[in-house]
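**User:** My hope is that you can spare some time for a protein that puzzles me. As I understand it, each token names a local backbone shape. I would be glad if you read both lines and explained how they fit together. The protein I mean follows directly.
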Amino acid sequence: MPKIRAGNIMMNYDQQGSGEPLVLIPYLAADYACYAFQVANYSKDFTCISVDLRGTGESDKPAGVYSTEMFADDVAALMQAIGISKAHISGLSLGAATGMWLAAKYPDRVKSLSLHSGWSKSDAYLKTVVQGWQVMAKALNSVPEMVIQGIFPWCFTPELYAQKPDYIQALSDFVRGRPKQPVDAFIEEANAVMAHDAEAQLGKIRAPTQITFGRHDVLTNRFADRLTYGVKDSELHIFEDCSHAPLYENVAAFNDKTLAFLTKHAD
């Protein structure tokens, strides 16, 4: 995968497909490959640029405090470094939180914005959940095992576990096969999740925006109205059979709905 200097760090990214650029921003503890099921479809119509945020994958993992605004600055720097003046921006969870900042701070760089399972400002409930993941990561001394045992149950419905255990196992194997995030880097990335506050930025977002949630997402579903009212040119869709990760729980429905939005806003 190519690496390039973006601001003060080296960032790793993957590029596939052709067409207008589409930047895909990963969620907490993930690297660029987390969108593999989407890139297979998106890349037929878009040039997909999937990134490793600082602290993840094969990008630099400098010490210090991370923030969602910093991640947005990094992505903007990467776009500039590889010669992309404007792109469609898409992210899930932490990726969505980063996308909010990117669209607010760099409006001329964002053609459309896709916010999946996002939230405007971390509340006590979300912070408590993420703190639990930090405790588990330290106890297991393994971010991949923490993801599988700690984060997965928040991402998928009980029905998926019951009906498709082989699929859960395949996703677990996929997580274990990716570059392992150091525990200390995960702690800083999780701290950025807990400190996220983009409420004052929502009104600055000018790009047409798709906002989606899973109906059974107890992590972020309650922010649907706040985001939809806060982002002027936005549309909301709920995936009725999903939790926090519709991109895996109902791949076909997620891809169809999100690609329709992206295509509508492409030249």
